[in-house]
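User: Assemble these into one structure.

Assistant: Restating your components, then the assembled model:
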Amino acid sequence: MDIDDRAVGFTLMSEGRRGPHLWEIAGKRGISKGDKAKLEDALKTGSAKAVAAGAVAVVAATNPVIANLYFAYQAAKYAYPIAKAGIEAKVESGDNTKALEAMEKKTIEQTGKVIVDTTVEAISDAAVDGAFQATGVAVSASVKKFVSAAISEAIEEVIQ
Amino acid sequence: MTSEEKWVQKVLRSMVKHEVQTALMTQELSQKFLIRSDTKAIDQEIEIITDKITKRFVAKLKAKGYIGTDSNAPAKEFRTMFLEAKDEYFATPESSRE
């Protein structure tokens, strides 16, 4: 039996539900040989509780979400001066358009890039691109999009 | 005025939520932290847990001087602090989980 087949057997029995696949637990990049061996051992010999604890450890050790979270942290730090410019303009004028213009100006100043539209999405995309270039953290286009969406949401929240 | 600490919390929240949901997929944690009979309550509980873990994590970053300064947390330390914040929450008795 393959490890993935056994992982399917990791069920939440009291709920009558099928459990997650190994890749769902450990992330799509997979897990290291050592972690895989540990999980295999837990699955072979352990009680449901031990298997659950083993799965948590594997998640903690291997989940690429933490790497993506690290990029989000760096992007958030990079974008803070931009958001701050928008917040200050909003506090001064009470006007969302002025807040957006202030953020656009600060984004251009910080990234050196021209922003085509004065929208929250365009500003956050440019900020994330700037953070990506400034930090050199290797992330996929989809992660950049996800982080950009998180920044857009945060901008909308703070200038409301 | 939103501080850098609050700002980072807002940005990281959705990604922390993903991690919380993944952790709660395990039987041990879902039984301990979620009420199975009420789907709405599960969603609310995930939001509450996400907020608390994000807050703890960002407070750790700030305490080490990685927020509100030009200094960035090194990747390894960042990972350790996040796992600590998450593990501390899940291991803490309910009465003192704030």
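Chain B touches chain A at residues 1-2, 4, 7-8, 10-16, 18-19, 22-23, 25-31, 36, 61, 67, 72-73, 75, 78-79, 82-83, 86-87 (CB under 8 Å).
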